[in-house]
């Protein structure tokens, strides 16, 4: 099986600059630090801001943030951020791969991870804001009695449709069938 190669232009097409701006403003509000390296991806590349953001959301969740060093230190920061994000409540499917940020291959996934961290923040009552994105839905469990459940079985919902008044009277589907005898 051959998979088509995804070009950089296709990946860049998935990026949403408005979401990136919202994520940047949220990170700046949480950490109290400004993005200084120019572009969104350059400021996040070493993952220092993301680690500091996680430490603000959950103090002490990342023990050591590497502020200098090569790619190995960057990968260590990314790994620590991802572990802290999972501990905070972000699902594994919402995390970006290390190469997405380190090599700046898919910044759209990095932005989605930031939004996933923001959704997880809603579930922590100790966090008082600012918030990013909509509040996630919560379970609304209901308890019904046996009588209520049995009464509901007798009702045919209109989603299933109705056949009231359904007949084929007056239907004319093209020419009538002609039967020729004797040939």
From TrEMBL:
Top-level taxonomic group: Eukaryota
GO MF annotations in UniProt: actin filament binding; calmodulin binding
Cellular compartments per GO CC: actin cytoskeleton
Keyword hit for Calcium: no
Protein keywords: Actin-binding, Calmodulin-binding, Repeat
Keyword Cell division: no
Function: Thin filament-associated protein that is implicated in the regulation and modulation of smooth muscle contraction. It is capable of binding to actin, calmodulin and tropomyosin. The interaction of calponin with actin inhibits the actomyosin Mg-ATPase activity.
Protein family per UniProt: Belongs to the calponin family.
Name of the featured protein: Calponin
Organism: Clunio marinus
Record lineage: Eukaryota, Metazoa, Ecdysozoa, Arthropoda, Hexapoda
């Amino acid at each position: 099986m051959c998979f088509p190669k995804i070009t950089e232009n296709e990946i860049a097409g998935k990026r949403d600059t408005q979401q990136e701006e919202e994520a940047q403003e949220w990170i700046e509000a949480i950490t109290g630090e400004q993005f200084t390296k120019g572009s969104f991806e350059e400021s996040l590349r070493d993952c220092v801001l993301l680690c500091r953001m996680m430490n603000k959301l959950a103090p002490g969740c990342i023990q050591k943030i590497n502020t200098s060093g090569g790619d190995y230190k960057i990968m260590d920061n990314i790994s620590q951020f991802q572990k802290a994000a999972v501990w905070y409540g972000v699902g594994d499917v919402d995390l970006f791969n290390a190469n997405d940020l380190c090599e700046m291959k898919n910044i759209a996934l990095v932005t989605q991870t930031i939004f996933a961290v923001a959704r997880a923040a809603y579930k922590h009552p100790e966090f008082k804001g600012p918030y990013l994105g909509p509040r996630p839905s919560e379970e609304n469990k209901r308890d019904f009695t046996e009588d209520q459940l049995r009464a509901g079985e007798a009702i045919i919902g209109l989603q299933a449709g109705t056949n009231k008044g359904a007949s084929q009277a007056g239907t004319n589907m093209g020419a009538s069938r002609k039967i020729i005898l004797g040939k």
